[in-house]
Amino acid sequence: MGLTNTPSDLLPGTLELLILKALARGAKHGYGIVEHLRLASDDVLRVGESALYPALQRLLLNGCVKAEWGTSENNRRARFYTITAVGRRRLADEEAHWSALTSAVGRVLKNA
Question: CA distances (Å), 77 to each of 4, 69, 105, 106, in order?
Fold first, then answer.
């Protein structure tokens, strides 16, 4: 059984990082992003629409993703999101920051 994560459970900016990472594997609609995060986290990260769509909107406004309408696997109209060059640069920067942060926290936990 996984934990239901709310935006307050994640560090600021983490959800955007996870969305960008999911989109680095290819274009996805909102439900596809949510499912990717759930499956990739072994059912620990469950992102709701109330957190996902505002984060996607911020990424759109910052030029990190672009969106276009298409048809989902269920033959429904859906908005598909794709990472941009700006988003790829942000993803690389955020991954480096995240790696340094988690290493530092790990050192503190190990040596405290």
Answer: 28, 7, 43, 44
